[in-house]
Design brief:
By secondary structure, this protein is an all-alpha fold. It is built from 3 helices and no strands. The chain is flat and about 50 Å long.
């Protein structure tokens, strides 16, 4: 069974519908939206070579 088929089956289940409505509710909350935006920005900044992310790997590695 393909992954897409499994996802579609889950989405049609009662648990999938609950997850969808919970995600929709959280997406409408300004605090949750801000947290998600900050998390995405943190992930994006890691690949840019800046120091906005966590610790830098040692030089030469």
């Amino acid at each position: 069974m393909s992954l897409l088929h499994k996802v579609a089956r889950f989405a049609k289940s009662s648990a999938g519908r609950r997850a969808f409505y919970e995600a929709k509710r959280l997406a409408q909350d300004p605090r949750t939206r801000r947290q998600a935006k900050e998390a995405f920005e943190k992930i994006r900044s890691r690949g840019k070579g800046g120091s906005a992310g966590g610790p830098q790997p040692p030089a030469g590695h």
